[in-house]
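New to this. Please check this record:
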Amino acid sequence: MLLYAAIGMASMVVYRLQSASTYPVVGNHFNRSEAKYDFDNMRMSQLIILEAALQSQESVGQALAVSSLKRERYVYVINEAGAFLGVLTKTSLIQKAQEFL
């Protein structure tokens, strides 16, 4: 009977030692998994860089200036309420400008 108690105590000690090293790994995995889930379900409007967003009535020159100053390949177009309307690429702006030359 005493032998069974010793085996049980040894099992509990081993279990406790393993759980201390295993749980942080599992916890990190779940934290990364939750972060990816949160990112995947994030709304695109939350990712818009306000300094790189222009309203639709702004000039093309301003769009080129913003993309050059901020070194952004994209300029977000928003309405007066700040709702996302679309995106202009720097390439499409340059191609349109070349059509007029």
Notes: The mean pLDDT is 75. The two ends are 96 Å apart (CA to CA). The longest helix spans residues 2-40. Helices lie at 2-40, 60-69, 90-100.
